[in-house]
Design goal:
Chain A: InterPro entries: EboA_dom. The complex is a heterodimer of chains A (about 200) and B (about 280). By secondary structure, chain A is mainly alpha-helical. Chain A contains twelve helices and two strands. In chain A, helix 2 packs antiparallel against helix 3. Chain B has a single domain, classed as Metal-dependent hydrolases (TIM Barrel). Classes of the chains: A mainly alpha (about 200), B alpha/beta (about 280). Chains A and B meet through helix 3, helix 6, helix 8 and helix 9 of A and helix 3 of B.
Amino acid sequence: MTLDDLRAALAAVPGREWLDDALARVRTDPDTAGPLFARAERKLGREPLAGDGAWTAGRAARALLLAELADPQRIVTLYQQGDAAERLAVLAALPLLDIGDAGVPLLQDALRTNDARLVAAALGPYAAHLDAATWRQGVVKCVFMGIPLSAVDRLDDRADQELAGMLSALAQERAAAGRRMPDDATALLNRLTVADTSRKQA
Amino acid sequence: MRIFDPHIHMTSRTTDDYRAMAANGVQAVVEPAFWLGQPRTNPGSFADYFDSLIGWEPYRAAQFGIRHHATLALNPKEANDPRCRGVLDLLPRYLDKDGVVAVGEIGYDSMTPAEDEAFAAQLALAISYELPALVHTPHRDKAAGTRRTLDVVAESGIEPGRVAVDHLNEVTVGLVRDSGCWMGFSIYPETKMSPPRMVEIIKAYGTERILVNSAADWGHSDPLLTVETGKALLAAGFTADDVDRVLWRNPVEFYGQSGRLDLSETTPGATFAGSSIARGGS
């Protein structure tokens, strides 16, 4: 999804006029963004957008408001002052916004929570900005919390032998406790082990 | 029996309570902001508390299939500490949030001038944010406090039908019924109100504008006393429809006036149910 895709998907939804007005207000006075961002979901609704179940009309509207705002500090503030749905909307929009590394502290905040939705959202495409140690902790936290690893963007590209060591240690703890590892984590660990063996043999 | 507990402080309750509530038919709750036993000393403590009521707590409830909404306010007790008055400046930002379905708990504790001021200011906020108001009545001097509460509500200009006056008993229910406000009852193990007394009050006053809650918190209280009250009503000859009206449709009607009540079923897939909480945290 790009911002243009979201604009197109919102072209005919109920509440479109409200959104146009909100975007115009944010353009002329960025201080109005807070209340408009908070209200966007109940104005636009929580129906999934056609073509992409990850986006609801309300979340897409929030992404457009952030793009209109285009000010990293104000975007960070909207996350910090947001409820869970507002924070999820900011995290989902981060890869679409031109804000460099300014969103990294928001990923770190989301990864500290115990809300599986926030943890998963922190490991989307914008996680390319996360350093390797934080990213690995995030992946292992997904395994720990039962979050499907399909939530992690570019999982196999970034997974390294250090992650393999952490997963292997978790697998040992689970085995000692008589508990199962999630299948997708075991599969990842197997892929990493095979890759390591062929590297050593080469 | 489906139950909507319109007043319960889940922040102070355990995950086992959520499990027991869900198993006994509680499908929705409203958590009013109140005090936490230990007085707070600055607005930042309230900001973190409010964030929890619109962030973590609804998520925790959703793990058990329970919808969680909140009412936010500076409570009357802490309104007396000048260090906490800045909370009134924080509130506008929070009253715009989707999960906030009323301003509350507001009202009186010791009936001081500081409480007068915070009460009136927050009724005005309820009007400007088009939210209902949840009003606490004092434990001491309750009848006088309730009369004064109703005077302040009338002066504020808010419609009485958008105000719930809570923690009522046999002495105060009539005053509130005549005012047009909703009548809230907190069923407690020993103090405020009991299931058998609640049955008698509904026999006398009917089911209209009645809200029954557990007001369970960090004190001696029980989140399943709404369920017990439903059983007591059935045993006394009320119909299942009467019970559904009192324990579900009435709170839906009252908080529905906010336009923000979301009772769509929680979807376990969307919140990765069975994850960290069910497994004991990370």
